[in-house]
Design a protein that fits this description.
The chain is an alpha/beta fold. The strands form 5 sheets. It has a 5-stranded parallel beta sheet with strand order 3-2-1-7-18. The protein has a 5-stranded parallel beta sheet with strand order 9-16-10-11-12, covered by helices on one side.
Length: about 450
Amino acid sequence: MNQPPTAPYDLLGVGIGPFNLSLAALCDQVPDLTTLFCEARPEFRWHPGLLIDGARMQVPFLADLVSLVDPTNPWSFLNYLRHQERLFPFYFTERFHLPRREYEHYCRWAAERLPNCRFGTPISSVHWNTTDELFHVTADGKELTARNVVLGVGTEPHRPSAFDALADHPRVWHCAQYLDRRSTLSDVQDITILGSGQSGAEVFLDLLRTRAGDGTRLRWLTRTRAFAPMEYSKLGLEHFTPDYTRYFHHLPAAVRDRLVGEQWQLYKAASAETLAEIHDHLYQTTVGQPIDVEPVEIVPGMAVTEATADPTGTLELRCRHTDSGTDRVIRTGAVVLATGYRAVRPAVLDPITHLIDWDEQGRYRVDLHHRVATRPALTGGLYVQNAELHTHGVGTPDLGLGAHRAAVILNAVAGRTVHPLPARTAWTSFTPPAPALPQRQESNDVPRIVC
């Protein structure tokens, strides 16, 4: 909703990724709520370096911006298809999982049309004013005020510390840049991909297809003990429900931290379909030949402990095999780091960091409404999206919970139930049953009546 810049917004969003875009779409249908979402980039972009031909989403199309909260909302994926005149083609495709490029195009369609989204508007700082009890936000050189702020700045590519010495090396880069920099690998005859998640699998598969038969050695390493598929059983997927989020949130912090590490196969592994495509490709290209004829190396349980470059420019990876404890040096021409993403503390919060109640590890304390705990002097609402893995569990980065989380935040900001949310969303009862009450014992002192 447009308004004079002097009036305080009810909610101001910092960053426009899929999660804040979901919140913007839900807010758009609430006429008495004034909202604005700002993004520094000139247009919506979602992992542009990984929009590889053939790559599909790992969540069904119903995990769009709004449908799992309000399927009648005009910003749904099905309404996007209607506007694109693609409803019948989608119907006949009979695929529950979208091409990644189509999901990104859908989000851009919504972002370009939502009146409360403003691109090319970098936010440089967020202040809290104790006099008027408002956030004062500097956006593209102008000051805006808001009663509530939601951070949706997303995560940043993670580079393992073993590669610190190669921070600026032109042949070592994160897979987030893959499509932009793939052409720089054209003259490299030995390429190593590090990381066994979905991105690593897709990069490895793409290189298998595009470099087939040219003699290039492709190597896929992971410190994980197996190239295991992501958990995709129906009951296993119930970890991505609000029921599990509530259960996880009430666990002790030490238990939560342990679980996040143990549950990697729920949210960090590759899809079984992509792993099958890799195997199928290797099988078909070696028909009539020994399987080792293809210059491919796939090694699980291999951790890179140090990476350097020799005087000729060749990269040397010092590795340790997890199970055997043996060391190995791998010489390669390029490394693509499919090593995930990490939440970072945005610099825009620097003016109010002293007003945030950080936990013992310097992370946000986040309640079930996704509101950050703050000192008493800060009375406005500061909310986060996709920065609460440690408090809300494996569903935090999952698009399937995006609309639900946005609705929870919207209800909290509005101070009323704008969107009724289901009380139960899973067959699984994650909370252990209450202990049975002890049976009442008869006292031996009670006299028996004898007739």
